[in-house]
């Protein structure tokens, strides 16, 4: 499913958190959103999920305006994994993932064997099947993060919006999550802090002060000049001799030897 | 041992039957036990006469006590207990605060003020007038509390603080109305009623309490998935496809209505909405599919039991039922607080 955003914006307390963002993500594409802290990545993801009141501009799914779809219809198409969603309830890991079936169920269409199979599959996909019965409060940050992603998978969306999905994850789970996401037959938009992970996306968008500062394939967008300008870091491109992949190494601009 | 292992392939059916049987026994006990103990055969014969016109020989005085006093009183106690427990479940879910219940959020206080205003000022009058006044007061109180909480920056802790302020305000208003307008005798009656009292309950009260509790139960059952979805907050519920504003309006509306009806019939009974849902959560877990029916059942049985105790505690005198529920509820509340602290 294709998602397009036209002149999207959102203001809080008179300040524009996101302004005039226009972009289109193609069916099946993995799209990375990068940008410094407070550049509006999370807000843009919420706008794309249709969660913000008084939003400016328009979001369309396959050409249909999001505002024309009900909440339930939207949730069947778009799943969002936010940062720091917590609960004080004594839920189990499995309970948390079962919540993903909410948009597909009603009082007249209760949770059934098909839903159970989808939840099992989602738990297995993030490697949490063996901990399905564990209490939420006993889980680590990384385990909770993986369950949020499993919950989004159980929602069976066509578009997956992920806000820093590799946060809290150890390196093994970071890599397996990114591999899982890139293999899913859905459109993925994810905010990322690790620019090397962003290098693996099909395209990336760079947010700066609420605006889309650049858009394109990672190798074209992540130039040393742009990284210096937006992230205030120096960057050197390196090649991994194993597979010729491009890596970025960062250093503080202040530490650069001044060239004459 | 799992539920399925104990009850076979249809656990919900068996558990439902078990629950219905428990409620039936509790109602029977509520009718049998009292200052004048009535033997079970008399009670059963009265039921048979009234329901199937069986024509069995029963002492008319005893039959009158069973049918006109004890049975309506027990049914209203069951409806109130279920309604208050459901109100607690709803508010704790939507507000995401373990302390939320109609009493703490000022809804009960608002309902009392509304009912007292109608009773003393004579606006409307009659049973429905009293309930309507209570509903108006409860809605007004909740709206004020919600507005205050929002103005103070939102958050569920703020809402409970605002609820305390709202309770104080409306309790003061109630006292003001009583002091200003009521005669000494009226004042005594109102104070007694405010503490929770089922002594005056008759059949017309049943026709108000039962439909309110049943409507509440059905609406809660209809919204179990939505209430589950609130576990991770309103944003998350919205992302899961829950029409948050509509669900909040419907569920808070029915909660306010149930509280208002119960308060107008039996006064303001505290702690049931707070303690019963937590106790049930400890047994059946936090998912609303189990929590809603079991909390309703436990609330109903708890209030029937509290009513029996209130009749039996002091011979020849009825202790206000609110006193009984608070005597049990306060220690229960303390346990919840300690448990919450221990939680990792």
Automatic annotation (TrEMBL), chain A:
It holds the Pfam family ABC_tran. Keywords: ATP-binding, Nucleotide-binding. GO terms for molecular function: ATP binding. Residues 3-234 form the ABC transporter domain. Coiled coil: none annotated. It comes from the Bacteria. InterPro entries: AAA+_ATPase (IPR003593), ABC_transporter-like_ATP-bd (IPR003439), P-loop_NTPase (IPR027417). This is Iron complex transport system ATP-binding protein. The lineage of its organism: Bacteria, Pseudomonadati, Pseudomonadota, Alphaproteobacteria, Rhodobacterales.
TrEMBL record, chain B:
It is found in: Cell membrane. Keywords: Cell membrane, Membrane, Transmembrane, Transmembrane helix, Transport. CDD domains: TM_ABC_iron-siderophores_like (cd06550). The keyword Cell membrane applies. It comes from the Bacteria. SUPFAM superfamilies: ABC transporter involved in vitamin B12 uptake, BtuC. The chain crosses the membrane at residues 12-34, 75-95, 102-121, 127-147, 159-179, 247-276, 288-306, 318-338. InterPro entries: ABC_BtuC-like, ABC_transptr_permease_BtuC. It is a multi-pass membrane protein. PANTHER family: ABC TRANSPORTER PERMEASE PROTEIN MJ0876-RELATED, FERRIC ENTEROBACTIN TRANSPORT SYSTEM PERMEASE PROTEIN. Belongs to the binding-protein-dependent transport system permease family. FecCD subfamily. This is Iron complex transport system permease protein.
């Amino acid at each position: 499913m294709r998602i397009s955003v036209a002149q999207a914006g959102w203001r809080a307390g008179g300040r524009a958190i996101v302004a005039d963002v226009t972009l289109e993500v193609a069916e099946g594409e993995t799209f990375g959103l990068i940008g410094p802290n407070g550049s509006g990545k999370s807000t843009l993801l919420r706008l794309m999920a249709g969660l913000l009141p008084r939003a400016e501009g328009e979001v369309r799914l396959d050409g249909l305006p999001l505002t024309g779809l009900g909440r339930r219809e939207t949730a069947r198409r778009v799943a969002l994994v936010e940062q720091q969603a917590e609960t004080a309830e004594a839920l189990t890991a499995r309970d948390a993932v079962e919540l993903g079936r909410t948009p597909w169920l009603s009082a007249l269409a209760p949770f059934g064997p098909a839903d159970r199979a989808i939840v099992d599959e989602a738990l297995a996909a993030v490697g949490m099947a063996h901990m399905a019965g564990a209490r939420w409060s006993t889980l680590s940050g990384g385990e909770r993060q993986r369950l949020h992603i499993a919950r989004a998978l159980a929602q069976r969306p066509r578009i997956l919006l992920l806000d820093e999905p590799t946060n809290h994850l150890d390196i093994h789970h970071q890599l397996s999550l990114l591999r899982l996401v890139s293999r899913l037959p859905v459109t993925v938009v994810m905010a990322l802090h690790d620019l090397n992970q962003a290098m693996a996306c099909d395209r990336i968008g760079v947010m700066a002060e609420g605006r889309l500062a650049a858009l394109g394939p990672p190798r074209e967008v992540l130039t040393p000049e742009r990284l210096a300008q937006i992230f205030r870091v120096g960057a050197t491109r390196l090649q991994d001799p194993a597979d010729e992949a491009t890596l970025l190494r960062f250093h503080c601009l202040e530490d650069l030897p001044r060239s004459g | 041992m799992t539920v399925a292992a104990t009850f076979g392939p249809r656990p919900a059916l068996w558990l439902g039957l078990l629950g219905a049987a428990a409620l039936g026994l509790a109602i029977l006990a509520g009718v049998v036990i009292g200052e004048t103990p009535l033997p079970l055969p008399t009670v059963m014969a009265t039921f048979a006469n009234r329901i199937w016109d069986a024509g069995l020989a029963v002492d008319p005085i005893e039959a009158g006590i069973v049918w006109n006093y004890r049975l309506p009183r027990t049914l209203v106690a069951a409806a109130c207990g279920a309604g208050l427990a459901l109100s607690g479940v709803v508010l704790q879910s939507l507000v995401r605060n373990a302390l939320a219940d109609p009493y703490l959020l000022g809804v009960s206080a608002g309902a009392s003020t509304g009912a007292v205003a109608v009773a003393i000022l004579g606006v409307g009058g009659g049973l429905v007038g009293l309930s309507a006044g209570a509903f108006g007061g409860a809605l007004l109180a909740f709206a004020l509390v919600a507005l205050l909480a929002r103005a103070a920056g939102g958050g569920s802790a703020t809402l409970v603080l605002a609820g305390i302020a709202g309770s104080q305000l409306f309790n003061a208003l109630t006292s003001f109305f009583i002091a200003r307008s009521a005669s000494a005798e009226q004042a005594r009656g109102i104070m007694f009623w405010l503490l929770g009292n089922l002594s005056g309950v008759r059949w017309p009260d049943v026709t108000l309490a039962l439909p309110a509790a049943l409507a509440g139960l059905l609406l809660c059952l209809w919204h179990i998935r939505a209430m589950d979805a609130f576990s991770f907050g309103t944003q998350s519920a919205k992302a899961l496809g829950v029409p948050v504003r509509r669900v909040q309006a419907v569920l808070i509306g029915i909660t306010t209505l149930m509280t208002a009806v119960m308060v107008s019939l039996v006064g303001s009974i505290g702690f049931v909405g707070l303690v019963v849902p937590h106790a049930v959560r400890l047994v059946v877990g936090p998912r609303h599919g189990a929590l809603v029916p079991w909390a309703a059942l436990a609330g109903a049985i708890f209030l029937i039991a509290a009513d029996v105790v209130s009749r039996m505690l002091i011979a020849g005198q009825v202790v206000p039922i609110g006193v009984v529920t608070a005597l049990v509820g306060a220690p229960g509340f303390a346990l919840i607080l300690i448990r919450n602290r221990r939680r990792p």
